[in-house]
Amino acid sequence: MTHAPSHGASGLPLASRAGDLVGSVIDSSTSLLAKQTHDIIRFAMGSPAPEAIPTRALAQVGTEVMGERSPDAFDYAATEGDPALREALLAQLEGTTDETTSERLTITSGGMQGLDLAFKLLVDPGDLVVVESPTYTNGSATAMSYQAELLEAPLDEDGLDVDRLEHMVDQAGRRPKAIYTIPTFQNPSGTTMSVERRRRLLELARTWGSVIIDDDPYGMLRFEGNPMPSMHELADGDPLVFSVRTFSKIIAPGLRVGWVDADPGLGQLLINAKQAMDTCTNLPLQRLVAGFLRGGHLQDHLTEQQGVYRERKQAMQDALQEHFAGRARWTDPEGGFFLWVTFGDEVDTEALFEPALAEGVAFIPGNAFSPSKLFPNALRVCFASTRPDRIHEGVARLARAVERMTK
Ligand SMILES: Cc1ncc(COP(=O)(O)O)c(C=O)c1O
Q1: DSSP characters for 88-130?
Q2: Which of 249, 257, 259 to mutate to test the pocket of ligand 1 (most atoms within 8 A of CB)?
């Protein structure tokens, strides 16, 4: 584990944890791409399609809940979340695999705050935290910001390889404090953990006394295959599962509204921790989301999004087949936003980034998803935010960049 010198570039006496703040290649791509002036097909960020943002319904609900007769919508909110949103969310989740109760629910400022709260409450410096390999590195970076030691456990097409994980933990000779998993349509690989593995992971967590941080922002975006129980449902109230959810992918990321579903015994601690972070999640947007849910817009919106994303995933696979058959392999997600492409050793995807950008296409290199940089010849593409014809053009540009780099 690396620690910052007590004086950083600023000359200020920094805390040792400052050296463990690693930043996000994924998030930084937003500002990098905003500076580009030529046409770029953006497979980089994990955002919903711009045309899939339900702007009409949001605008209509916005006028209702934030109109001139609603000054209270601009006040501070209760830290655990505005009652209007809590109520609408509980009703929305009823009968789904994420059904829950009021005492388990805390509204958060997006999924990232849910992860921060989880690691803040669970991790002491030097604690072992399991992350998937590859993983969503904003999650692993959050664990690192609390000075966790990471154990990267491999994935295959059925998600986290739980047998390998058991072996790795045996070898490490100590039990993990937490296991960070994205079980459904994983970011970045697009794979989904099988039900058998979910059950086995729960057993292992019980044996080890580890908390499973179940980060599942994409579960409602299934466009193929059979529905699967969430870790939350399988846990059936076991306090060892801490679930993190967000509206970012199912409505819009700019809302910065999400929720945590955790053992009621953690409720007051979550409130204390959140009060020391941001007091409350911003109230106007909680009211906006509440109105959106109350108006029955979410289900229609999800159905529409699923159709759009199914078509886009197919377009991405067809284009990859056309340009990279025999040269690369890729995953086949049944939902969510991402597909993971692995090339042969001759393609270094970090080196490919600049030529690809010059060619007019952006992706995230594989190493951005591994704290130990285990994926130099892989990359993540988001198929969700680009129209099918542009997906074909983007993959053609990527193929030209690979061609130029390897010739
Ligand atoms: C797996 C995963 N967890 C958490 C988040 C963060 O969600 P939010 O944007 O709501 O903070 C993301 C966003 O990309 C994600 O992919």
Answers
A1: HHHHHHTTSTT---GGGEEEESHHHHHHHHHHHHH--TT-EEE
A2: 249
